[in-house]
Amino acid sequence: MPELPEVETVRRGLAPVMEGALIREAEVRRPDLRWPLPERMAERLVGRRVIGLGRRAKYLTADLDDAGSGAEVLIMHLGMSGSFRIDMGNASVTPGVFELPRSKAEAHDHVVLHMGSGARITYNDPRRFGAMLMVPRADLEAHPLFRDLGPEPLGNAFDAAYLAAAVARRATSLKAALLDQKIVAGLGNIYVSEALHRAHLSPERVASSLATAKGGPSAGAVRLVDAVRDVLNEAIVAGGSTLRDHAQVDGTLGYFQHRFRVYDREDAPCPTPGCRGLVHRMVQNGRSTFYCKNCQK
Q: pTM for the full model?
């Protein structure tokens, strides 16, 4: 499933052709994805202007103007295999850098938006684990998908003091705690493994160890917050540093693919300077974890 950096890269790719643009026509080619699509979705989208395109955790949010029925937000989730394709004239691009290639088969084009910017935006999803919902703007934060989410890992609210307090009584593993969306929103399996390696913390460590006896943040908590921010920012830059204005897209949209230090690198030498360990793989809660037993304690 695409993680926060991939979703943010998609947002940055879509923003130039969606923000401020009118939805001239909408095609909804099936009644459902992971969940049923909104009632009269096409009718409710046509004639609406996209005021802004945001991201909360792994969800994209398109703020729509008030069309007489109140301002609404289109919530979009990519699921396991979803992607957006932008067609502008003879050029076609798929914003985002994904671990696995995205489908371009037209049979899996489920929602198509024809924008006043001249772009045609197609949502393609072979496995149909993605989702689209429309909710009133005033109800967004209280929506079941958002109301229990923790702070954004790149936001000011996520710091070492917060993290220590959030896990102070957690007997679960550190990795499981970081994947808990109620503690911090948007982190996924790949970047948790990467951040823990950078912070030299074992994924098996008890989460509460990030808090001191007095409840303050340990040195490990400080390192981990810094590592989370660094790895996410580097991944976003790697995926989106060459994004250009899609109003003038020429089909040569480029990305610098980042390389993982430990994820999916089982038996490779640990990249930590001076470490002679190897990258190991284990399964935690049904997910692969990659780490170095030698330098992650």
A: 0.86
